[in-house]
Design a protein that fits this description.
Elements lengths: L11 H23 L23 H20 L3 H7 L2 H21 L13 H25 L18 H16 L12 H9 L6 H38 L1
Length: 248
């Protein structure tokens, strides 16, 4: 496909920065797995599900996607043709940016609601966990947003394809709900996947009706997925306007 390439996409120091940042993301995940140590935290982590359960979180999966994208972008700058197909794809950039932004917004929004454990830096384990949380939720989302505002080409996003953005979070959500209900002990990566979460929000004090709770989760799930699509729409409008200016 013919497109106008931004000169920055041929800048080797920029490509090196992308590869370096992507490798940091990979290294942080490896560090968390290698140095895993279960710590009982009442209200947050009360059961040891094992070190590899770390990959069950949308946070981790979205950050892996970011690292892969950054490595591809760096390789593309250095001339790798296969990497260019991924790094310069508007839909790939949109999807990765949307997912990581939602990751950051949910985490930071959960802090005042006490849905996320407080950060502590008093020993190595706590410092490592704090570093992982800050990097994944507070550094990479704005980093990717800034990068998104620098389109590598003038190729626009086709708005009729935006629904695709909702597929991955929908599948992830359904899998997390089903897995949580069927596992023993039960594991839900996020509290809003528990049937009790919305039930208590609307019917606090009443005995849980599991079937009704799951029915209540359905419109909430659809609403949650619509957040991804709406955010991608906003990002696509900004992206396409930037591309129009770049084409002139």
């Amino acid at each position: 496909m013919d497109y106008k390439l931004r000169p920055l996409m041929k800048n080797k120091p920029f490509g090196a920065l992308m590869i370096f940042t992507g490798l940091i993301g990979v290294a942080i995940i490896i560090m968390r797995i290698v140095c895993y140590e279960f710590e009982y935290v009442p209200g947050y982590y009360e059961i040891d599900y094992g070190r590899f359960n770390f990959f069950s979180f949308f946070t981790v999966q979205s950050n892996i996607l970011v690292s892969v994208y950054l490595l591809c972008l760096g390789a593309a700058v250095f001339g790798n043709e296969r990497a260019k197909k991924i790094a310069f794809s508007p839909m790939v950039r949109l999807a990765v940016t949307t997912y990581i932004l939602v990751t950051g917004m949910v985490y930071c929004g959960g802090i005042p609601m006490k849905m996320t454990p407080p950060l502590s830096w008093d020993n190595f384990q706590h410092a490592m966990l704090g570093t992982v949380q800050v990097f994944h939720h507070m550094i990479m989302p704005p980093f990717m947003l800034i990068l998104f505002l620098i389109p590598p080409t003038d190729e626009k996003i086709q708005r009729k394809k935006l629904w695709i953005i909702g597929i991955y979070p929908f599948v992830y959500s359904v899998f997390s709900i089903v897995r949580g209900a069927g596992s023993n002990p039960q594991f839900y990566p996020y509290p809003f996947y528990r049937p009790e979460f919305f039930w208590n929000m609307f019917f606090n004090g009443k005995e849980l009706n599991t079937a009704s709770a799951y029915l209540l989760m359905l419109p909430m799930l659809i609403l949650g997925i619509s957040v991804f699509v709406l955010l991608s729409l906003i990002l696509s409008l900004i992206h396409n306007r930037l591309c129009s200016k770049m084409s002139k």
